[in-house]
Request: fold
Amino acid sequence: MSLDIRTKTIILLLVTCTVGIVTNLAVEISAVCFLAMMQLLSGKSVFQYRLLIIYLALVLTQVFLFPILPETLVMVLSLFVVSLRKLFPTAMGFVWIYKTTKVNQLIATLTKMRIPKGAIVSIAVTLRFFPTIFEEWGHIRDAMRIRAIKQKGLHPFRNIIRTMECYCVPLLISATKTADELSAAAITRGIDNPATATCRKYKSMSAVDYGALALTLILTIGAVVA
Amino acid sequence: MIEIQNLTFTYDTGDSAQHPGIKDINLSIERGTCVLLCGQSGCGKSTILKSLNGLIPHFHGGDKSGCVLIDGLNVDDTPMFCLSQKVASVFQNPKSQFFNVDAESEVTFSLENQGIAVEAIDNLLGETIRDLGLEKLINKSVFHMSGGEKQIVAFAAAYISTAEIVVLDEPSANLDADSIGVIRGILQKMKQNGKTIIIAEHRLSYLAGLVDSAYYISDGCITQVLDGAELFVLADTQRKALGLRGLHVDNTLDLANCVITPNAIKKNQLIVENLHLAYGKNLVCDSVSFSADSGEIIGITGKNGAGKSTLSRCLCGLHKQKSGTITWNGQKLNMRQRRHMSYIVMQDVNHQLFADSVLNECMMGIDDVNTLDATAILKELELHEQSEAHPQSLSGGQKQRLAIAVSVVANKRLVIFDEPTSGLDYKSMLQVSGLIRKIAESGTIVLIVTHDVELIQSACTRCILIGGSEI
Reply:
């Protein structure tokens, strides 16, 4: 199943708003299940079972562990467990959209929606930028693992700060370089051409899109009313 | 027709080591010819290319005088998107010139930006796929492509474009011999189709028979003009004096030329047995076995995507093997122990420099080292004058030497170099090779992952072909 970017955005907005307004665990769990189903339907590589497992662990901690743990510990833990849990529906929605949207398809749809060229270019560049940054992050992590970065005798907190610093400096340097090279590559291919770009991969909203939207809307109303 | 008249340019940044300018360049290039710009790293080749594709003055700021005319149009007064229809570009780094996440969209990207009708694009795409034999590549995702495949797609994008002029900046820097063969084929087809090709390159052998004229650039000026035939019959001594890389393909890896014999004292021994490497279910490397003694310098070579990087990551304890063992002086090593004793000098050394000064970089995280020892090592690597400088302010070569210094201070016994000479001219390559030999003399086992045959011949004691058998 492949949905239009607009459908996906609206679904994400609806789900996030519902979960934000109706603070009910059952609703949140259904929202996560719904998004997991959307991910599964969009393809095996889109589906993130790890996210689902972490979410399950958080819910189980809250439901079963919190009642039996000492109160002070619950106070400290809940800050982490509950707030992290609440982010899950949004995070899963973003992963779903990110993994299923091609840059040229996005440009095509935004162009058809008559979004200004400048905005489209910035969105496209930003989206393209992330995978490169993740890759760089991996290299830096490798480099840090073969060197002892942590210093013995240093306060653990100072060591954490130091580790973060070690990630940030090379990452910023290579991010600037990558951004520069990507932009240079983009403008030598005429991304700033004021002519309306060809929407080669553009597909208009289909029955599946409207179906998915209707389903989400019904579920949302159901959740709000109930 | 391209006309460059009295072109002088200096970059805003003022750092002439990293951003060399050009002085008083005069050039005229006929339609349909193939022009080579050669010279040592930092001589200004790229600057000339950037003033052709419009990145100078539209993207990089600086002082410019003189003018560049493309078919009578002045580059300064022509907006980037118009220039992009006249000049297509291929850059050195395949990673950061890919704008889309699949090959097909990338190839058609410049056409889509121009707003050409869908049917016309589809026709052109079909032709390009047929001409260049891209059937297998076209639906692949960027994340599953090797560097060589990405570069081939970048070439296809230049091939399909309406641009009559193609500008290439060291496109072969990170490629294996097979991919270079493919891009040579594409260049030939471009030339047959009447495109004008301007290429800046260190690796020259694959351009034999394609180049019509070659300009040798030194310190931002054109100092010598040769025609293609003249260039490729230069005597070896002349070529080396100019600091140029080998002119003829030498894939035979004739290691009889390797004059280096391993150090006689066998202090340490690394044995790799039946190593199987995989990412998830994808097998990368199958039963790799070899042994290495201290003082040896072993080249590891093989196609892009054959598993060379995975192997080096595994040896350093950054990737867990599926099966097989790595032993050091008879003792089996786990990941942690491997991380402790080994080191990689990465292709992009920027990733591994963390501290705020060169001296601190050497001492970082190491408890039992004193400033004197570290300074002595820096002096050995000619970095002592910069010991207070910030690592990121150093030049590329200095950064690489600093990364090496770190490995010496940390007393690493196994050092792996990942493509240490990609994009380097002949002299710099020899310097790196000398440095590597120096490290090996102290008893360290050195592995070099590379496609650079000249480096292997000048530094390695033997060579392992991954995805094939040991030589």
Q: What stands out?
A: Chain A touches chain B through 52 residues (CB under 8 Å). The mean pLDDT of chain A is 85. The CA atoms of residues 6 and 109 of chain A lie 8 Å apart.
